[in-house]
Structure formats: structure tokens, C-alpha cells
Amino acid sequence: MSIVVQKFGGTSVGSPERIRHVAGIVARTVSEGHQVVVVVSAMGHTTDELVKLAGSISRKPSAREMDMLLSTGEQVSIALLAMALHERGHRARSFTGWQAGIRTDDVNGKATVRDVLPVSVIRSLERGEIPIVAGFQGISPDGEITTLGRGGSDTTAVVLAAALKADRCEIYTDVTGVFTADPRVVPAARKMDEISYEEMLELAHLGAGVLHPRSVETALLHGVPLFVRSSFQDEPGTLVKEENQMESTLNVRGIAHDLHVARIKVLGLPNRVDTLPRLFGLLAEKHINVDIIVQSEHDRERVDVSFSVDENEEHRVRDVLESARDHLGFERILTESGLAKVSAVGVGMITRPGVAATMFNALSEAGIHVKMVSTSDIKISCVVDRDRAVEAANVLHEAFGLGVDHAAVSNR
Ligand code: ADP
Ligand code: ASP
Ligand code: MG
């Protein structure tokens, strides 16, 4: 019998009716002869509300206590979904992350899954039950509850699918699949029937919140076929899979945007060979992810280094750098928040010159100032002011002709 892992996000389990509806989707898959393992997120905006609640008690809550708090959201949904399946006459059993054997490192708030030992989930399947696993959470080597970072339930689903050698992993959400840009802000965005793991990974890293980046990384590593589809409409979704040659003839496949970017400028650092490793080593020790880095040499004595980080990290970066001012020897730090990053992604870009020129032209014609740029084989990203980011995403979507259905055009 084939195993299917089905994950339902916050909106999909946002109310008792939605939970009953999800129970119906799971029951239908079981009736088709599959063994189903379910992963759920916290109901609706529960996680945001818990974050706010913590903020009303403490300005800087401990990361351990935050994980203790946030992990409760998913525990509510697993129990309720199990009850909804019981009501339909199914045998179902809920599991927290640790009960399901999701073992992580000890980085509270953004833990990485190290190992999955789903013994209890397998036993549950063998007993003819539907196991329902809490997404987003795991257990550290010291037995502490950890969480995988916002949106991490997708990763719980894919690591379980890989460990159980599932036939497929289905991510049910509030849109009908992966689009050429965020359909909520780019009205011309088009649903893709398929996308390669590599392109999806890049889009996810660059802010396309529909899939947690590490879920795509894991799916790629283990070759898990990943479907993104709607829990609201019964339509085929998007299949994330190995690259298809036909697809790579397209330049740009999608536009992603990330609205939470800050730029840090470290001015007047000593122009020495160990300056960069000292600076970024310090940030790495604190698990701070640095994105675009630009270095400019003043003269033989001094260099300036600018880099972008997630806006949530801005204060922490400042604290870490200020406390190492003597060690690093810089003159000044400037920080700028209220920025965003807009990116064009596509594996075909590698063989197409002129993608950067098209991007800069389109932004310049719209009067959108580019503050930082970074490129790789399959993407170009520009940092812009946040209040122009959605406009930039729409402008680029149009400039790269993404609103046109290429498959439909070639089929005519
Ligand atoms: P869930 O709670 O189901 O995990 P998320 O909010 O995490 O749902 O992800 C779904 C959202 O991702 C959509 O509502 C959409 O606004 C956003 N999104 C961003 N980029 C894309 C994209 N390229 N394709 C589809 N959805 C996208
Ligand atoms: N509930 C968590 C969040 O809101 C995890 C998830 O939804 O995937 O980030
Ligand atoms: Mg999500």
C-alpha cells in the first residue's frame, strides 16, 4: 500500500468547519486505498497571536520559552483533527513532534531537522490508524522542544515523507498551487502545473512563502514528489519535481519578493585579510543569516562592508557588532530598515544574456531605485524600498512576459 503525507496549513484548519473539511479530504484519500500520514499547522493566525502575546509580557522573550509557547498551536490542531476523524468513524491518533521522532539541533526558533525516527507513526499505520503529526516542532538532543522557523510545518511533512519513503507529499494551502508570483499581490500571476526543485528552492529562499525553503531542499535531496494544492478547491495543483528540459528554455519562471529586509553598513573597517572572516564569523556564531554582501575599498587602510539581513535580525546584528567594536575595529555602523528584495528566478537564465538588463530597465522606467544587487546562475535579486516592492514585482512580472501562458500559446 502506498503512503501519502498530507499537510494542511493554518488557513486550511482555521475553524471547526475547515477542520471537518480537512477530515473529509483525508478520509477520501484513505478510501482510495492509501495509507495517510497527516501533518497540520496551528489554526489560522494562532502563531502570530502567540508571538504577540509573548511580546505583551516581555520585550526580549527567551528563545526556549518562545518555542515552548509557539509549539502549543499545532498541538491544538492535531487533537481536533483526530477528533474530527473519529467522528467520521476513522481510527486516528495525534502525535507531537517529539512523539513522531522529529529530532533537531538545539537552535531554538530556527532548528534544523537532523534525524527522523518515526517508529510510533509506523506502528500507528500498522494498527490501521491515521497518524496526525504536529508540524513546525521537534526535539533537541537535550530533550528540549524546538521549532523549525515560521512556515516550518511544510518541512515536517517532507522530512516525514522522506523517512517513511512515501509515494508523495501533498501540501494543502489557501492558493491552488505555485504561481509565477504571489497571486495575492500580482493579479496577472499564473499557476504553474510543474516547477523544478531548483527553481522552487530559489523562489522559496527569496520570499515565496508558499513553501518553507527547507521543505524543498529535503524534497530535492530525497526525490520526494511534492504537490502544492488547495484545500478549498478540488483542482490539480503544482508538482515540484526534477527539472524538465522543455521548461529550461524559458528565461525567467517566477518573481519572488521579500518585504522584510534591512541593510547594515559597517564603515571604516581595517583593510586586512582577516576582516571579512572576523565580521561574518561573529554573525555565523550567532546563527544570523546574511544575504547580499557588498564590499567597497576606501583606500589602502579602510574598507566599508554593507550587507542585508532579515529585518527581524536588525537589532541583534547591531548589538553583536557593537559589542565587538574593538575586536573588529570599525568606525561606524549605519542601519536602514523598510527595505524589500525583489527577485527574478529561472534555470534558463544561465544561458540567456540580457536578463539583468531587462530587469534594471523595467525598474528604472518605473522610477524604482535599486539599492543592492545580487546574481547567481538562476536568479537576480534587487533590494528596493519596501513601499515600491509590490509595484516592482508587478513590473518585472510584466517585463518578463510571465502573464502569458506559454504552454497554451505553443499548443495553439
Ligand atoms: P499555509 O498556512 O497553508 O502554510 P502560507 O501562507 O504559508 O500558507 O502560504 C500560502 C501563501 O503563499 C499564499 O496565500 C500566497 O499569498 C503566498 N505566496 C507567495 N508567493 C507565492 C507563489 N509564487 N505562488 C503561490 N503562493 C505564493
Ligand atoms: N504555525 C507555524 C507558523 O505560523 C508553522 C506553519 O504554519 O508552518 O509559522
Ligand atoms: Mg506555510
Describe this structure in words.
The chain is an alpha/beta fold. Among the domains are: 3-173, 3-Layer(aba) Sandwich (Carbamate kinase); 264-327, ACT domain (Alpha-Beta Plaits, 2-Layer Sandwich). The protein is 35% helix and 27% strand. It has 13 helices and 18 strands. The chain has helices at residues 16-31, 46-57, 63-87, 119-126, 153-163, 197-205, 213-222, 275-285, 314-323, 325-328, 355-365, 389-399, 406-411, and strands at residues 3-8, 35-40, 92-95, 102-104, 113-116, 130-134, 137-139, 145-147, 168-173, 194-196, 226-230, 238-241, 254-270, 290-297, 302-310, 332-345, 372-376, 379-385. An 8-stranded mixed β-sheet has the order 3-6-2-1-9-11-12-10, sandwiched between helices. A 6-stranded antiparallel β-sheet has the order 14-15-13-16-18-17. The chain has a two-stranded antiparallel ribbon with strand order 4-5. A hairpin with a 2-residue loop joins strand 17 (372-376) and strand 18 (379-385). Helix 5 (153-163) runs parallel beside helix 7 (213-222) and helix 6 packs antiparallel against helix 7. The chain starts with a strand and ends with a helix. The relative contact order is 0.10. Mean pLDDT is 94; it is low at 406-412. Adenosine-5'-diphosphate (ADP) binds at residues 9-12, 41, 151, 173-175, 178-179, 181-184, 203, 208-210, 254. Adenosine-5'-diphosphate is lined by residues 9-12, 41, 151, 173-175, 178-179, 181-184, 203, 208-210, 254.
